[in-house]
Design brief:
229 residues; alpha/beta; 7-stranded parallel sheet; binds NADP nicotinamide-adenine-dinucleotide phosphate
């Protein structure tokens, strides 16, 4: 098991929901957390908050540069920022498909690319991409969201392929419903039967603690039974 004390972990979407819970859990575990947030005043207490907006060109590079200037290195990334506007096959709107691609798929790509030299340099970099069960099967009409999360599955495989010999290990963490703002509109499943952000944070900590010889490629988290998952 790896000691997380002092590890520098960049967490996007750290102002709310899963990203915030992960950041708080990692702080409690002794990590130095670089919180990538759109409003730095909302970074979790104890973290270093830096401006990060997935839709702004150069934002990921700026966040990485500021993190390295502050801490001297990057040991791990948790890509948690995400959106889920409805983008259906027959009705669109096409703008929503574009937004989903930009934030959910290109966002993590830009952060990983900018942090890559530092992850390689450290010799045992870690990447956790918060994907979704929507990255594993299509079960509702938000095709745009599912496509963006399928893309995150491919991205995670590529990080593993390209990074393995550099000691980099990557995991796609795939929850179903989690009780956050993102599921505020969900009425078909009770909130008290959704996964908790704290559960995902516990899993993220565990993934970061695992040694390089016990790497988890995908981890699916169900709050309800599904025949195929
Ligand atoms: N909740 C679920 O049921 C569920 C299930 C499976 C997967 N996921 C995935 O888990 C991740 C976290 O979701 P969540 O449930 O924690 O959602 P959430 O509570 O809605 O939080 C989303 C986070 O993403 C940030 N964000 C949104 N657009 C951004 C942008 N353009 N640039 C940078 N940050 C941006 C938000 O920042 P602001 O606070 O500034 O808006 C917020 O911190 C997402 O990738 C989501 O797809 C969620």
């Amino acid at each position: 098991m790896r000691d997380l004390a002092g590890k520098v972990v960049m967490v996007s979407g750290a102002a709310r929901g899963i990203g915030r819970a992960v950041a708080e859990r990692l702080l409690a575990a002794g990590c130095q957390v670089s919180a990538g947030v759109r409003d730095v005043s909302r970074a979790p207490q104890g973290s270093a908050g830096f401006a990060y907006d997935a839709t702004r060109q150069g934002s990921a590079q700026g966040w990485v540069d500021e993190t390295v200037a502050r801490f001297g290195r990057v040991d791990a990334l948790v890509n948690a920022a995400g959106i889920n506007p409805r983008a259906s096959l027959l009705e669109g709107p096409d703008d929503a498909f574009q937004d989903l691609w930009s934030v959910n798929a290109m966002g993590p790509i830009h952060v990983i690319r900018a942090a890559w030299p530092h992850l390689v340099g450290g010799g045992e970099g870690r990447v956790i991409n918060i994907s979704s069960l929507s990255g594993k099967r299509v079960r509702n009409d938000n095709l745009g969201y599912a496509m963006s999360k399928f893309a995150v599955m491919a991205l995670t495989q590529e990080v593993r392929r390209l990074g393995w010999d550099h000691g980099i290990r990557a995991t796609a963490l795939c929850p179903g419903f989690v009780d956050t703002d993102m599921t505020a509109h969900v009425t078909k499943w009770p909130r008290d039967k959704m996964s908790r952000p704290e559960d995902l944070a516990l899993i993220a900590e565990m993934l970061l603690r695992l040694s390089s010889t016990a790497s988890v490629a995908e981890l699916l988290v169900n709050c309800r039974h599904e025949d195929t998952l």
